[in-house]
Give the backbone structure.
Amino acid sequence: MKGGTRREAQFGYLFASPWLLGFCIFLLYPLCASIYFSFCDYSILKAPIFVGLDNYKALWGDDVFWIALKNTLLYAVIALPAGMGTAIILAMLLNAKVKGMAIYRTIFFIPSLVPQVSLAVLWMFVLDGEHGVLNPILNKFLGIIHMSGPNWMTDPLWTKPALVLMSVWGVGNAVLIYLAGLQDVPVQLIEAADLDGANGWQKTKHVTLPMISPVILFNGIMGIIGTLQVFTVPYIMFPNGQPARSTYFYTEYLYDNAFRYHKMGYASAMGWIMFMMILVLTVVSLKFSERHVHYQGS
Amino acid sequence: MGKNDTRIIQKVLVQIALVALSIAFIFPFLWLLTTALKPIKETMSVPIQWIPSKFMWGNFKEAVITGHETVGYYPFVVYFRNTLVLCVLIVSGTVASNSLVAYAFSRLRWPGRDFAFAVTIATMMVPFPVLMVPTFALFRHLDWIGTYRPLWVPAWFGSAFSIFLLRQFFRTIPFELSEAAKIDGASEWRIFRSVILPLSKAALAVVALFSFMGSWNDFLGPLIYLLDQKTFTLSLGLQFYQSQNGGTQWNLLMAASTIIIAPVIILFFFTQRLFIQGIAITGLKG
């Protein structure tokens, strides 16, 4: 260590001590304990009994586990690109230097402030088949081509799109991040592209998007981590993952195993599988990004 | 057509798109408000009646204070108070602990610091569900289930996200200031208290704001740890209310939702700039 005195180091540990403790108690210990629990039969009422790989084997043959996993991945595959695409487009529109930018920015941002429980309750009544407001409006447009709005809440095919729609509504946070990224893109680059006769699409594809690619990567990874954990909204809107288990997601099954069926070991195994999936997806995204992400100044 | 004309057409198209999208984004809020103010009958009328025939301001009162007599839940004022108590405990813990830790990570040199910081950042990837069972077992062992302690005590031990945010900010404060204070004989604690913190009000406010939003929003935590209805938070209370009245008393449900959403939006309007700065920092300096 260069420059630091012993005294400074002592203060360093002292000031960092809340987190060093917190890290050990609330992260490291639970992380290690959950590996151990995942190899145990554990109901929380009695001490864990080691059973080896039984939980993992049981998960392999558990239909509900596969349904929940499939639902979650399917939801993520739709919701992530939909959310990121919408956020980037909104940020680009906001960055176009038209009048009233601050007002539009506020309007797009506010839905992301709505607490999850309120979000769920509000949208239940927006999407409601009998008294909801979305379908009557959709029908006005769809009526022209002799179609009508889907049963968002009761048709197993449409429950996931309903959740995606809601997540897109709450995309404002990401819009602000992208907007800040876009405002950091040097004007000279755009002007240089203009001089070379690039059109709007070319400028977007070859200048703007590469310049904000680190932001896209960061948001993408955070998005993967968040989306795979989806819980509150479906838990409230669709009790027990109804209809036809189409909204029964991974975290909900994990929660049910832990706190409804008291299969804590089983739930821990699920937790570790989720953690591993997130690790793998993050590493893959980072590897993929090496070729596609452009860092300024490097 | 000249280059200028294309520019103008582009601007007009962008403006039209923004207006259309804004309407779509505002729409659910209008539905929320109009439903909250309707008599129960009009929430079910076909075709939709946008303006209530009579503005039922009493819905709010019924949802918040008196309604519990008829449906057997606790009045929302109780949930409101519970949530506020929790928010205060969590926000103060978050600000106190993370500012100390971020100081250690940004302005003090100690062996293992950079490694510890890298590990701290990596913990942001750990999903809550993998920690859920052992953490619950730990709090159960301490006999804390059913109390607020599992929800607020961890906030006093720091969190990766806030440490990161504050560290990024503390690093930008010139080190000469610390040196000068040191020459004047100030202790580390003094420098932290009298030099760094006063210069970091904006960053501390951002951390406070985010942690407030987080605790106001939290659902899974209270769902796991709170058992008694009279200790419920707003989120949990609304969910409970919804599961009993879902599909029947939409006007009261919407009134109750409005009451949970409103404080957050009001807070946002007073702190807009902080919000926008804070979110930009979290996204860009990653």
About this structure: The radius of gyration of chain A is 24 Å. Residues 1-38 of chain A form one domain.
